[in-house]
């Protein structure tokens, strides 16, 4: 009998398998001193309020103090957060994080005057400061901050809006409590006995090869949601109404304009995405026809779209071997990129394996100080984890370049750009593994997984983005958002995106009422634009030379010094046009045809 592998406690994890947080603080004692220093600085914040606008010197001194405080705040928060994620059962780490949050909250309150005060400074005073060479490292930060002037209200009005912040979270928080705590989905009978159906196990059921099991889990899941459909519709309607209200009081044309404004993304980018993906739906429908054929189904159901098409490609790669694969796959980016990433992955950047209490999943946590740390739960027999290593490595290298080429106040890149570097790396790893696959069976398995990844990011997120656009447009046209109108809009989108091969259940459109991202409006489109940009850039770098590679590095080095559309233009892709999205859709269509060829369908 095979012995069950023991999951170690944190103290049993070898040092070489842990991240090295000493780049942030040498130890907990040094962190403690840093926390004391932040509290001392916090006590002096108010003293800058009255003097900031009296002279250029006073303004410069205030900005320098603001940056110094912010950098210390980030270091303290990163160290405390990473210690919690490595072992969430560590009471000492949890206590330190809570203490940091308390101090950071006090500091945030103490700085509450700063942004409105900067925006209220006389324009001629600010312009003269921006022209002063001493303000060079603050120019981007100030320019972005001052863009919001037309949307800033009077001090009493801003105070009233600030006081609403807690109550504004009611719809989102209630949705979370209802769906994650109160809803009881019961159990599903399986060959191994009754198994709990929950938010997290639902996806596992949908990937189960037993179709009857998938059907029963799907029906139970949406029946429970359906019992609360009026409450869910009311919560989402309330969230959309809040978006409309905030856009109106801040003088935006609509809620979407308000969401796009901070990144200076034209509404045409959003419209191009939706229109271009809609024009390329035949390729998606062809994929679903192929899926039905591979699964041997005359009629595809909603619970058939997540089960793996083919057996997973067999793989067994040690962590070191995974680093080798990623290094070889990313060789087109040149020796500096590869050697830097490789040194980090094998050095102190990564917390590699599962231990008791460690946060599940994976993330990259890059900051201005320390290293761009990566949390993994790497498994040697899961090929997907090699892609995860490349993905998080892409984020970390983006952070590494950004922090080394920009002042602190403008080094952080936007969410719009964040998924580009990570999915770029995944694209190169896929190409490497595909080109080195031993046979067509392995290639077909890799390609099937790649198609599912592209579908989930490019097509599904665009469908979500279109639903958000429609629901907000309805309310802004004074059409009520009812359970029937919301379900009707979502069903129309389901039928359009999934095509004629799909037969939906009566409750399938309830899915539109259970997506938590919808409570952070106009966010999901960034996943679709991100993968579109990364595919275009990967093709450009692989087919180009030194110039194309240097252009990509210029993007990575931009950090927050440019708005995302301009930063991507530097890399060689123009997201203000439909071309990158069209190219991504074209790549999806080509992959569908290649999979059909490999399977001789």
Give a written overview of the molecule:
- This protein is mostly helical and 601 residues long.
- Among the domains are: 10-163, Up-down Bundle (Butyryl-CoA Dehydrogenase, subunit A, domain 3); 319-442 and 525-587, Neurolysin, domain 3 (Orthogonal Bundle), CATH 1.10.1370.20.
- 62% of the residues lie in helices and 3% in strands.
- It has 25 helices and 7 strands.
- The protein has helices spanning 28-43, 56-86, 91-110, 114-120, 123-130, 139-146, 155-163, 165-168, 170-182, 199-206, 211-226, 229-249, 255-260, 267-279, 281-295, 319-329, 335-346, 384-403, 415-435, 440-476, 483-498, 525-543, 546-558, 564-571, 579-598; strands spanning 187-190, 193-196, 300-301, 350-351, 363-365, 373-375, 502-503.
- The strands form 3 sheets. It has a 3-stranded mixed β-sheet with strand order 4-6-5, sandwiched between helices.
- β5 (363-365) and β6 (373-375) form a beta hairpin.
- The mean pLDDT is 95.
* Mass-distribution shape: globular
Strand count, sense and barrel status of the largest sheet are: 3 strands, mixed
Identify the quaternary structure here: single chain
Contiguous helical run count: 25
**Tally of DSSP β-strands:** 7
- Cα distance spanning the termini: 41 Å
Radius of gyration: 25 Å
Instruction: Give me the side-by-side strand order of the main sheet.
Output: 4-6-5
Overall CATH class of the domain at 319-442 and 525-587: Mainly Alpha
Class based on secondary structure composition and strand pairing: mainly alpha
